[in-house]
Amino acid sequence: MNLxxxxxxxxxxxxxxxSGELDHHTADHVRIMLDDAITKxxxxxxxxxxxxxxxxxxxxxxxxxxxxxxIKHKGGKMALCDVKPQVYRLLEMSGLFKIMPIYENEGTAxxxxxxxx
Length: 117
Known about the structure:
- The structure is a single chain.
- This protein has a single domain (about 5-105), classed as 2-Layer Sandwich (Transcription Regulator spoIIAA), CATH 3.30.750.24.
- About 40% of the residues lie in helices and about 30% in strands.
- It has 4 helices and 5 strands.
- It is globular, with a radius of gyration of 13 Å.
- This is Anti-sigma F factor antagonist.
């Protein structure tokens, strides 16, 4: 299975929707795409929707953590939303939720980050 990445800018927020599998085969491609979007656009905050993400391994965790560090360095906030149970478990075991909030959907993520106006 491949990975599909859909990106949308909403003011200064980059909303990223991942579908498929985020693993060692796709992580570098996603990392490059996100870094490019964060750098070239006026991206202050990042919301990652994992609604259609079927699988993720440690390479995917690295992508998420790296983007978190990048956004935090810029003074922004990052959140995850729409996480399926199998991906949620990996994120929970990694301790990622101790540093990054998780929300039910994109709307609550944007509200939770206090970036909706």
